[in-house]
Amino acid sequence: MIRAGIVGGTGYTGVELLRILALHSDVEVTVVTSRADAGLRVDALYPSLRGAINAVFSLPELETLAECDVVFFATPNGTAMLMAEQLLARGVKVIDLSADFRLKDAKEWSKWYGMEHACPDLIAEAVYGLPELNREAIKQSNLIACPGCYPTAVQLGFLPLLENDLIDVKHLIADVKSGVSGAGRKAELATLMSETGESFKAYAVGGHRHLPEIAQGLELVAGKSVGLTFVPHLTPMIRGIHATLYGQAHGNLDDVQALYEKRYANEAFVDVLPQGSHPDTRNVRGSNNCQISIHRPQGGQTIVVLSVIDNLVKGAAGQAVQNMNLMFGLKEDSGLKIIALYP
Fold first, then answer.
1. Is residue 329 very low, low, confident or very high in pLDDT (cuts 50, 70, 90)?
2. CA 141, 102, 209: angle at the middle one, nearest 5?
3. Burial of 201 (C-beta count, 10 Å sphere; 0-12/13-18/19+)
4. Whether 149 is catalytic
5. 144-155 b/e (C-beta count within 10 Å ≥ 16 → b)
6. 271 lies in which domain range?
7. Which end of the chain is more exposed for a tag (fewer CB within 10 A), N or C?
């Protein structure tokens, strides 16, 4: 039985990890930390977990966490990097759901996240946890940088075109919408449903923190620099990411459709829909699935790829568990055979 610890168990990604791991037959959640709620039963804060999780919130202390086989960091940026090195030295595998180890350039990371990196030497050791791209490296890794929600949807959408050099990499556009849970579980005026409801807006058009992460991933696949315009939007729903991706591409629609179907044929969590489909975020809500469809409007050179995920599952907690399964030699879909909620 794998002993799992969760640092930051009170946020949306933390409780989503608990929901998934509670039903994982190979995992026992032994430590759940929260500085504010230490001493409180987890199911007292989240009654939905009654009968499934018996843990009590504790302080994030190294000695306690070192007794785990794997520790998930569902924490704000800048937390995992303070403890990862010590946990790794104790033989604990680390899966970080924040951005601490996603960027390979420490100076670039500091530029976007506004602080010095506490352990830049570990950045090279971290494996970027997008299983559809780095599966074999993930299996051998002890430190995983779990991708962000926007980067997951965008990279899965563009990946087959880049791998086959079928798209102009200098003019890529990612127009992406997110539900309000992407902002985390905090009291913030701009993300209250009464403020976001009946409204829709773009934000961070001048530069979002996920931009360098997306560009880094696309450049790794393309083998060259890319020109990416990434515009995120906030939409009045709780869960979901909808990425509409544009580029100038070669090949007819039938060939591109076949390419996507072949690329993802053996991927448990990527579903390429039939031609003409329009994936809906509700079709993946609560699941670890990504649904993709490909269009070529008016038969022109512009290709449009639609990619949808649940930002809290495939965009965070579910993908983290997918990585854990690979790291421990389990079936990749263990604990993740979750059918989307409808309606």
1. very high
2. 165
3. exposed
4. yes
5. bbbbbbbbbbbb
6. 149-311
7. C
261 confidence band (pLDDT: 50, 70, 90): very high
Residue 160 identity (one-letter amino acid): P
pLDDT category, 105, cuts 50, 70, 90?
A: very high
Residue 75's SS3 state is coil
pLDDT at 187 over 70: no
Res 192: pLDDT: 74
Say if 52 falls within a structural domain. Answer: yes
Dihedral (Cα; 11, 16, 22, 24), 10-degree rounding: -140
Residue 234 inside a domain? The answer is: yes
Per annotation, catalytic residue among 68, 119, 146, 149: 149
CATH number, domain containing residue 99 = 3.40.50.720
Q: 48-62, pLDDT tens digit by residue?
A: 999 999 999 999 999
Instruction: Please indicate, yes or no, whether residues 153 and 113 belong to a single structural domain of this protein.
Output: no
pTM of the shown model: 0.96
Dihedral in degrees, nearest 10, Cα atoms 247, 309, 181, 335: -150
291, 156: one domain: yes
